Amino acid sequence: MLFDDTYRSIAVPAEGFFKDKGSKFLAYAYPIDSDEQAKSYLAELHELHPKAVHHCYAYRLGADRMSYRMSDDGEPSGTAGRPILNTLYSRNITNVLVVVVRYFGGTLLGVPGLINAYKTATETALDLAEIVTRHYFSIYKLSFQYPQMNDVMRIVKEMELPVRVQAFEMQCTMEVEVRSTLVERFITRSEKVEGLTVELAS
């Protein structure tokens, strides 16, 4: 199989904590689906911790290693965002944001100390997180007449497609999630149902 549509992520937000020489590192891990979600969590943490000296973070989206963002937020380059990101890679999880909020304790930790602190804080949060397997999917909108209902429902049931929205009147519409590896089969089967139109939902 060339393309695997499963990935590992975290089920719900988790928090971790690490302390070194008086500096406190509070790690927050969140499951995310978009850059916008990451930004809104970051904004929330800035409001929650206005007195913290650094809000360093990293997140990755999708399966490839190119879709990520990270920030050292004023810490020496490579000492914060990169260790957080590397921990996401080593745990093989994606669609996850980790923000580590630092309260300075008055003693400089040096580069190795910082790298260790951000990595360890991230690990403590991820150790407490529930890891789940999820699937990449597309959402398709189906439109059909009421008489086609049985044919359409057979495809949905047999392919175990989660239904997001449905409205059954004379003209029926449904939105279903189709896993990436099943799209071709789904389209082929849908084409056999007369009067069924299928389009990608935006």
Descriptive overview:
It is built from 5 helices and 11 strands, in the order E-E-E-H-E-E-H-E-H-E-E-H-E-E-H-E. With 202 residues, the protein is an alpha+beta fold. It folds into 2 domains: 129 residues, 2-Layer Sandwich (Ribosomal Protein S5, domain 2), CATH 3.30.230; 65 residues, Alpha-Beta Plaits. Strands 2-3-6-4-5 form a 5-stranded antiparallel sheet, sandwiched between helices. It has a 4-stranded antiparallel sheet with strand order 9-10-8-11, covered by helices on one side. Strands 1-7 form a two-stranded antiparallel ribbon. A hairpin with a 7-residue loop joins strand 4 and strand 5. Helix 2 packs across helix 3. The longest helix is centred in the middle third of the chain and has 19 residues. The protein starts with 5 loop residues before the first strand and ends with a strand. The mean pLDDT is 95.
Task: Jot down its keywords.
single chain; 202 residues; alpha+beta; Ribosomal Protein S5, domain 2; Alpha-Beta Plaits; 2 domains; 5-stranded antiparallel sheet; 4-stranded antiparallel sheet; 5 helices; 11 strands; 31% helix; 36% strand
Q: What's the CATH first level of the largest domain?
A: Alpha Beta
Give the CATH topology of the largest domain: Ribosomal Protein S5, domain 2
Radius of gyration: 22 Å
**Biggest sheet, open or closed, and with what strands and sense?**
5 strands, antiparallel
CATH-defined architecture of the largest domain: 2-Layer Sandwich
Superfamily at the CATH H level of the largest domain?
Impact, N-terminal domain
Count of domains: 2
Low-confidence stretches: none
Give the fraction of residues assigned to helices: 25-40%
